[in-house]
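Lab notebook: predicted structure, single chain.

Context: the supervisor wants predicted structures on file for every construct in the current expression panel, including those that have not yet been purified. This is the next one on the list. No modifications to the sequence; it matches the entry in the shared construct table.
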Amino acid sequence: MAAARVRVRVAPRAREDAVLGWQGETLRVRVRAAAERGQANDAVCRLLAKALDLPPSAVSIGGGATSRTKTLIVDGVSSEELRAKIRGSSAR
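Prediction complete. Output recorded below exactly as produced.
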């Protein structure tokens, strides 16, 4: 089964959870959760899973857990499928 790696730039403590779109090779997202005790990381994984219509367990942090720029691993989709699904969605 395919697994994609995606670089994500996170803005925690936002007004709403939202996938903003691609900026080059980086996916920009906003989450309401604070960057404390992994809350923002969990929120980012749930948001991306919802945008891709995958179970939350399919998305995990692959690197940068304490940074605003993270690498996520998404099981069940290829990199191309991931880009196409995000490009075509307005996940909020």
